[in-house]
Amino acid sequence: MTEVNFKRHLEFDSIHNFRDLGGYRSRSGGRIAWRKVFRSGDLCRMSQRDIHQLKNVIGIRSVIDLRTAQELAQQGNGHLQLADIKYHHVPFMTGNPSKQEEERLLNSFSNMGEVYLYFLQHPEYGQKIVQALEIIADPANYPLVFHCAVGKDRTGILAAILLCVLDVPAEDIIADYALTEKIMASLFHRWRNNPQLSEELRRMPDFFWRAAPESMSLFLSTLERRYGSVRNYLIEHNADQKLFEKLRDALVR
């Protein structure tokens, strides 16, 4: 059967970094289904035309919002609340560290992979990842998009772990993560010239503004070394084999 050539990146007026996770090959020879699961930056600035494309062109039925409660309160959901789309709030960072503590931590690391590994050592973070995967495993939620603020870090972690569970090779997962690097220069320029940007963000290390392949490479290799596999990490955080089977059955063709 001839495979349809889908476009990975989808363009919107006011949504950045929106792309399809379909098309990647698993090691078993299957392929991740197109137009089922998408990853994105935040949706809070959507135009009416963006809502039309999400709802009526792509047919999005569910959204998983990985932002914190504070981000949600400050930024809202824009026009999403007016659409008939199921909304799931699964905040990946539920603590409330001080800005000084966040800055100190970031400046103690050398790339984002180390930051991700720091997050994943907290049991609640792993449980939130499992919660998000359980939503993704339900075909009734498709097509589905998950997002954070930029679609780089929290979204990048969830995308990488999902693709690992689906047995996509590490080199493809790293390449998918690094696709965000292409938009980071323009976002960085826009943010750094935004007078409303906090002084703490201005002092973030340069690697914070990147989606470098070496960050995801370090993240995946360290998870493998520490836990034996990403699946073992998830099992330690209350996932079970049925979840992995449901994800495979729903998304691998």
How would you describe the overall organization of this protein?
- The chain has one domain: Protein tyrosine phosphatase superfamily (Protein-Tyrosine Phosphatase, Chain A), CATH 3.90.190.
- It is built from twelve helices and five strands.
- The protein has a five-stranded mixed sheet, covered by helices on one side.
- β3, α2 and β4 form a beta-alpha-beta unit.
- The longest helix has 15 residues.
- 31% of the residues are buried.
H and E order: EEHEHEHHHEHHHHHHH
Largest sheet: 5 strands, mixed
Per CATH, the architecture is Alpha-Beta Complex
CATH superfamily, please?
A: Protein tyrosine phosphatase superfamily
Q: Bin the helical content.
A: 40-55%
Q: CA-to-CA gap between the ends?
A: 12 Å
- Pairing-aware structural class of the strands and helices? alpha/beta
Number of helical segments with 4 or more residues: 12
What number of domains?
A: 1
CATH class: Alpha Beta
- The fold-level CATH name is Protein-Tyrosine Phosphatase, Chain A
| Rg | 18 Å
What's the pLDDT, averaged over the residues? 90
Give a brief description.
This protein is of the alpha/beta class and 253 residues long. The chain has helices spanning 48-58, 69-75, 99-106, 112-120, 123-136, 154-165, 170-178, 181-192, 199-202, 213-227, 230-236, 241-251; strands at residues 19-20, 37-40, 62-65, 86-89, 144-147.
